[in-house]
Structures are given as structure tokens and as C-alpha cells.
Amino acid sequence: MNLPSDTVLSGEQLGKFVSDIFGNHMPFVNLLGMEMVYQGMDKAEIRLPWKDDLMGNPILKVLHGGVTAAILDTVGGLMAILHAVSTWPSVSIAQLQERVGKMSTIDMRIDYLRPGKGELFIATAEVIRKGSRVAVVRMELHNEKGTHIAFGTGTYMIG
Amino acid sequence: MNLPSDTVLSGEQLGKFVSDIFGNHMPFVNLLGMEMVYQGMDKAEIRLPWKDDLMGNPILKVLHGGVTAAILDTVGGLMAILHAVSTWPSVSIAQLQERVGKMSTIDMRIDYLRPGKGELFIATAEVIRKGSRVAVVRMELHNEKGTHIAFGTGTYMIG
Amino acid sequence: MNLPSDTVLSGEQLGKFVSDIFGNHMPFVNLLGMEMVYQGMDKAEIRLPWKDDLMGNPILKVLHGGVTAAILDTVGGLMAILHAVSTWPSVSIAQLQERVGKMSTIDMRIDYLRPGKGELFIATAEVIRKGSRVAVVRMELHNEKGTHIAFGTGTYMIG
Amino acid sequence: MNLPSDTVLSGEQLGKFVSDIFGNHMPFVNLLGMEMVYQGMDKAEIRLPWKDDLMGNPILKVLHGGVTAAILDTVGGLMAILHAVSTWPSVSIAQLQERVGKMSTIDMRIDYLRPGKGELFIATAEVIRKGSRVAVVRMELHNEKGTHIAFGTGTYMIG
User: Fold this and answer.
1) Nearest to D134 by CA among D98, D106, D110, D93
2) Is residue D1 part of a domain?
3) Which residues of C54-92 are buried (b: 16+ CB within 10 A; e: fewer)?
4) pLDDT tens per residue across span C10-28
5) Helix residue spans in chain B (DSSP H)
């Protein structure tokens, strides 16, 4: 989406625009192969197909713990930003970029439940503490069979 | 280091062999460009040169939070394993691989202190809770100017 | 329950005995006024009636954050121990006391969602990572109206 | 300190007034027996003498994990507030109470390193992430012999 920076967005357009930034304009997200799945403003979902580059221990053929942390931080950040923009009136792309540039992860906890085995990994998130300046988000990682691989909890600065 | 699996290692050889596994046989570690710096059995250090693929927000030109989490998890895991093997008598490579294969991160917290700006990132770790089955490790990330970027705390299953 | 130390317990008796230790033989649990509610071996529940001694900020009349942390650590520890003993065959009280004495909290995260207002607080827990040596438990705190006050996650050494 | 609510405080007076609120006007802090030790605006310290009421496991005679969490949350909150007020110009007591009433713990991690044995427990804190709205604080608990019992990390809403 290459739109003039004074284009005004609101509601669902805003959500899709944010998803597009995450999915297509973050080099590290592309390096890993994460794909944003737009699900509305109340839910965030990212899919990550297995590739050998994501392996930690090559004997076990499982995701490196850092991949799990990276996808959970990303889906948590996406959720926090969708939550923030859902409370805004319409904004221009220039304003959106300025405000998104100030958002950041404050802290994150990852709980590794089972080895990261699978063909496709699905990360989801929901906001558990809503605020105008800070949001707390819970994240989960499952594989394509529904096996629960990890939990995450992240605290994000959003305004 | 391609050695027969019945080669017996001890002490410093064991430490260097473990560093070699982390630095040269973990695909995700190579994808990011992490370099292990062997510092003895009591300290772990990993260096990561900047490259554009590691960017989150391309406007700010900073590390994606997932890169920070990945390098901190890796240096924490390396430290936990060095701590574990430092308490073992000599072992064969086959035994080492079997035992290392059972080690895993249980949980991890990352505190993001400052934006991940720099040319070279240095992650270090030390054990704060020593045990035969579980080790707790504190990790730090700095850039080449000594700016403190993040803290981590990880709990690792080691035996 | 004052039973001879060579009394052999199993199954539900064991669970009730552990609940009794937590509810009646831990001075700090009594100081706060926590009450164990036996719910079987798969679930832990503790109730805590409001009293003014538990206040942090007296202007707001809410629980001190340390009370929230204390009840969540307690219900998480109870859940971890119930999980551990549920996998044991029958044991004597002497053996149980020896093994319970070795159990401990390794780490815990608390997420404070809303102010701790209410007349009765209900803490519940479930195991999310089962192991023979380490268990990871998620905890929740609600008030008598169902308002969700806090989440917790704890990692416990159980064997 | 019973001062009229329009009294204007600044600098060290403000720090001592905040310490006084924590030490003398929070019922739960008094129930446990915590004593504030004013150390200037850059450091927070709380002392807690052993008493049997603080015990978890009575066989081991150690602090209940909830006591450790409570003192670390308290010293972290005190540090976060001292940090916040140190950046303010002079304020009236009424304004201070209004602003302090809005401060809260967002999340906290405790790492339990060694059993809580001792006669006197000393909790200290320092700010690791300074901000106008959120502060991140690291806390430590030692006993009178210098044994390191626990680490904490807390994220606090301060403005």
C-alpha cells in the first residue's frame, strides 16, 4: 500500500494499514517469513511456515527459542497497536507513522511449554490490560495440529 | 570440529566444543549472524554485527525486539549449558549430545531499556541460581559504545 | 490432621493432607487469612476475605500489590504440589514432608490488571507445563463479582 | 507528618514525605513490619526484621515466598515514586496525594535464589528504565549476613 502521507484512514482501513506495515515493511519479519492474517481490530494473528533456517538444535529439528520469542513479541506488538488505533478517530498516514514510531515493547515473558515442532506455527494475541498509554497483551503459539507450544505476556508502550 | 562421537572431552575442551555447537551448528544463530566468543566456563558472550535484515521499524533503524530476545535467549542458554558441563567429569561427545539435547529454556523475561541502535551488539550472561537440574541466568545486551539496550532473565532446564 | 508420621496416604487423602498443611500450618497464610478450598487434584483454589490490614493505599481502599503476589504464589505452589503428588504412589507422611520441604518457587510473574477492590478474593490455578522436576502454573485472581484483578505465572521446583 | 494539604514540598522534603506515606500509612506494610530507610532520591531501602508470622514452611523456618514478593514490590514502588517526584518542581501535599494515587504496579517478576533465612532482611532498588509515564525498577533482597535471597524486576505506571 503506497498511499500519499496525507491520506486519512479510519477503522478497518487503519487496521489493515498497520498489518501491512508489520507484514511488508519490517525486514526481520520478512527474514523469518512471518505472514500477518488480518482478523479485525480485537485480535491479532501471525502465521510462520517452518523452514530449516529457523532451527535451533539440528538433531531435534525444532524452532530456536528465539524464533518463538520473536513471533510472540511481534504478534503482541501488533495487537497492542491495533488496540491503540481502534480508539483513535481518523488519522493521516503521516500522523500514524509518527505515533507508531513511538510505540515500543517495555517487557515480555515467554513460557516455553513444548518443543517447537511442526509445519506451520500460528501466533495469536489478546489485550488483557487496556490503557491509553500502556497495554498488556497475552500471546499463544500453536502448531498446525493445535499443539500448544508457548505462552507469552508483553507490556507495550502505546501512547 | 568434526570428532568421532566416542572422543572424550573435559574442562576447557568441553566448553569450546559447546561454543562450537552453538556458533556453527544452529541454523537460526547463523541466519542472524551471531558469533560465539569463548570466555571460559564462567561467562558467556555473543557478538552480533548490525545488518539491515535485523531491523524492526525501518524508519528508526533499530533492532527488532525479537532479535534482542533471540540473542539474549541464546547467550543465556549457552551460559546455562557451560555451567552444567563445568560440573561434569569428562564425557564422550555422544553423551554430551544426548544430554545437551535434553536441555531447554523453561521461561524468559526481557526488559527493553533503550532502542537497539548500533553497529555491533554484545550479549553477556552470568548464572544467578545454580542447581543440578535448573539454572537461572541474567543476561545483558549492550552496543559497541557501551549503551545498555536490554536485560534478560532466563530459567533453563539443564539436567 | 495430626496423624502418626508413618501413616500411608494416597490419592484424595494426599491432596487433602497437602491442603491442610497449606491452610493450617503456614503462619504467613494464616496472618493474611487465606482459606484453602479443596477442589480435587487438578485444580487449586484459595479464598481471602477483605480486611483492612491488607490495604496498600488507604485512600483507594485496595489490596496491597504484595497481597496479590502472596496469594498467587501460594495458590501456584499448592497447585504445583498437588500436581506432583498426584503422580506418586502412596507415601507415608514422613516421606511427604521430606519431599514437600524440597519444593520451592523458582520464579514468578504477576500482571496487575485492575485495582484489588472487593469483599472476597478468589485465587485459582492450573498447571501449563507438567514435568517430574519442574512445573509451570498459571494463576488468576478475581473478586466476588467476577472482576479479574490479576494474572500470575510461576515456575516451581517439584522434585 | 500531619501537614495541611496545601503545604508545598520540594526536593528532599518530598522524598521524606513519600517515605513516610509508605512506612506509616499503608496497613499491609505495617502488618508485616517493614521499615523505610530514607536514602535520598536515587535509592530506596526497606528493612524487615524476622518474625514467626512471616514463615511459610514451619519446618524450614524461612520467609514465605509471598513476603519476599511483598517487600520487593514495595521497595520497587517506592523507588518508582521517588524517581517520579524527583523530576517534579515543588508540589502541594494535595497534588502529591492525587498523583501518587494514580501510580500502580503494572507487572513484576521475582527470581527466588536462596531460602529466606535470617534475622533481618534488606530490600534495595534502582531504576533501570526512566520515563515520564513508566519506570522499570530492579530490586534485590539480602539478609543481614549479605546472603542474596532474591531478585525482582517491576514495571510501574508513574504518570
Assistant:
1) D106
2) no
3) bbbbeeeebbbbbbbbbbbbbbbbbbbbbbbbbeeeebe
4) 888 889 999 999 999 999 9
5) 11-24, 27-32, 65-86, 93-101
Q: Which residues contact B5 (CB under 8 A, 6 or more apart)?
A: B92, B93, B94, B97
φ, ψ dihedrals at D118, nearest 5°: 155, 175
pLDDT at residue B52, rounded to an integer: 97
CB contact under 8 A, B106 and C134: yes
C35, containing H or E segment? strand C35-38
Whether C113 contacts C146, CB under 8 Å:
no
Answer whether A111 touches C (CB < 8 Å): yes
Provide the percentage of residues in chain C whose pLDDT is more than 70.
99
Task: Compute the distance between CA of residue C37 and CA of residue C16 in angstroms, rounded to an integer.
Answer: 10
Q: Which of A79-88, C93-102, D65-74 has the lowest mean pLDDT?
A: C93-102
The Cα D42–Cα D61 span in angstroms is 34
What is the rounded CA–CA span in Å between residue B38 and residue B41?
A: 8
Q: What CATH number does the domain containing D124 carry?
A: 3.10.129.10
Task: Look at chain B and report how many structural domains it folds into.
Answer: 1
Judge: B29–A70 Cβ closer than 8 Å, yes or no: no
Distance from the A15 Cα atom to the nearest Cα atom in chain B, whole angstroms: 17
CA D148 – CA D144 distance, rounded (Å): 10
Return the CA Rg of chain D. Answer: 16
Mean pLDDT of chain D, nearest integer: 93
Give me the interface pTM, i.e. the ipTM: 0.95
Q: What is the DSSP letter of A105?
A: E
Closest CA to A65 of D110, B52, B32: B32
Nearest to B153 among D109, D128, D136 (CB): D109
CA–CA gap between residue B42 and residue B126 (Å, rounded): 7
Q: Do D54 and C108 touch (CB under 8 A)?
A: no
Burial class of residue C24 (count of CB atoms within 10 Å of its CB; 0-12, 13-18, 19+): exposed
Q: Which amino acid is at C140?
A: E
Which stretch of DSSP H or E encloses residue C110?
strand C104-112
Residue B116 φ/ψ, nearest 5 degrees: -80, 70
Q: Region D41-64: what's the mean pLDDT?
A: 93
Residue A119 located in a structural domain: yes
Cβ separation D106–A157 shorter than 8 A = no
For chain A, residues with pLDDT lower than 70 are 1-2
State residue C1's pLDDT score.
Answer: 57
Asked, for residue A1, whether it belongs to a domain, the answer is no
Q: Is D43 a domain residue?
A: yes
The dihedral built from the CA positions of residue C8, C10, C16 and C20, taken in this order, carries a sign that is positive
Domain containing A40 equals 8-157
The proportion of chain B whose per-residue pLDDT surpasses 70, expressed as a percent, equals 99
Which tens digits make up the pLDDT trace of D126-138?
999 998 899 999 9
Q: Report the C-alpha gap between D137 and C69 in whole angstroms.
A: 17
- Mean pLDDT of the residues in chain C: 93
Section B85-94 average pLDDT: 86
Confidence of residue C100 (pLDDT cuts 50, 70, 90): confident
Distance, in Å, from the CA atom of B36 to the CA atom of B74, rounded to the nearest integer, reads 10
Nearest to A80 by CA among A137, A22, A159, A18: A137
Residues 117-156, chain D, touching C (beta carbon < 8 A)? none
